[in-house]
Amino acid sequence: MFRTTNAQTSIRTRVIEFRHEKGITDSILSIEYVPRTGKNRGVVYEQFYKDDICNLFVWLRDTSEVIDGELFKKDLQGTYWDMNAAMKNVTHEGGVSFPKSKKPEQLVRQIIEMTTTPGELVLDSFLGSGTTAAAAHKLGRTWIGIELGEHAYTHCIPRLKRVIDDEDRTGITQDVDWHGGGGYKFYELAPSLIEKDKYGNPIISDKYNPMMLIAAVAKLNGYFFAPDPDVFWKQGHSQDKSYIYVTTAYLDAKTLDGLAAEVSPMEHLLICAHAFDTGLSLRYENIQVRKIPQSVLDKCEYGVNDYNLNIVDIPEVDEEDCEDA
After folding, report:
1. Which domains, ranges and CATH numbers included, belong to the chain?
2. Rounded to the nearest 5°, which phi and psi values hold at 263?
3. Region for 290 from its dihedrals, namely left if φ exceeds 0, alpha if ψ lies in -120 to 50, beta otherwise
4. For the segment 269-306, what is each residue's pLDDT rounded down to a tens digit?
5. Spatial distance between the Cα atoms of 194 and 293, rounded to a whole number of angstroms
6. Is the pTM higher than 0.85?
7. Per-residue pLDDT tens for 148-185?
8. Residue 273: which residues within 8 A CB-CB, separation 6 or more?
9. CA–CA distance, 8 with 272 (Å, rounded to integer)
10. In 103-252, which ranges are continuous DSSP H helix?
11. Rounded distance, CA 224 to CA 231, Å?
12. First-residue to last-residue Cα distance in the chain
């Protein structure tokens, strides 16, 4: 047997206090107790301690093994958190308060460096206090962070502003020699496009103005939203000269015939309208007519409040809008 300093702190402290309290001067002291955890949990267990500092005696057979005729001592390595001081005391990292839930930048750094190279994309779909975005930014990765709660405004934005402005001296800043720079775009999810009326029928939400509606319906149907300044019905396009036209007006046969006269035989047009005359969807081979709600019901979700989002494309926004957000 041999001595080790790896005694359980609470037990060892009580043994030292007991020695002093009782005036025990013997070099070796034995105790018996019933452990609450570990391999001896629930049974009477005897331990031996030596001297005033109470080093613990450990049986050789319990802490070593023989490999190829040689004796090797086994050390308890502990956990990753025990060994790395940078994983603790992260309360002030990033300058935002996130009790009991904030992840250390050093931990995120090691994960990112093990799995990506500079310039590659890092995604955190539950961004929380913004640790992943902050660490990825400092490490030269592109990143996407998604946060449903108010933390996006109260934590993530202020924290990333400090990172970009070189005002954040916490986390991995000094380790990676970060001196600020870069930027990001901030997007908010639009309100649900489709909602139900009092009769349970799907209708377009009144939160959408005509241009928002056109952009949403175009993208949900796989068209690139790009209104033609000269041709009003070319509001979006896809491949092979295929276009989309979204209208909130009632579509009758006369209007459709007028549009058909402008659509060349080599072009295809999808028309999405609130309502239209019966039979218009079969009137022309290269023109398809759909009712707006039905054209998007299978491609979007409504009335939900979770992360099950069918995101078709990242919206195009003006730089001023980005700055305001």
Report:
1. 2-73 (no CATH), 85-164 (3.40.50.150), 194-299 (3.40.1350)
2. -85, 120
3. beta
4. 999 988 898 888 888 999 999 888 666 665 555 554 44
5. 7
6. no
7. 888 899 999 999 999 999 999 999 999 999 999 999 99
8. 246, 247, 248, 249, 250, 251, 289, 290, 291, 292
9. 72
10. 105-115, 131-138, 151, 157-164, 210-220
11. 16
12. 67
Residue matched to tokens 């390595």: 77
Among the listed residues 189, 185, 184, the one whose alpha carbon sits nearest the alpha carbon of residue 148: 189
Task: Name the residue type at position 263.
Answer: V
Q: What does 242-267 look like in DSSP terms, one character per residue? A: EEEEEESS-B-HHHHHHHHTTS-TT-
Neighbours of 69 (CB within 10 A): 5
Q: Which two tokens stand for residue 190?
A: 């639009």
C-alpha dist (Å) from residue 281 to 221, 243, 246, 289, 298 = 17, 16, 14, 5, 19
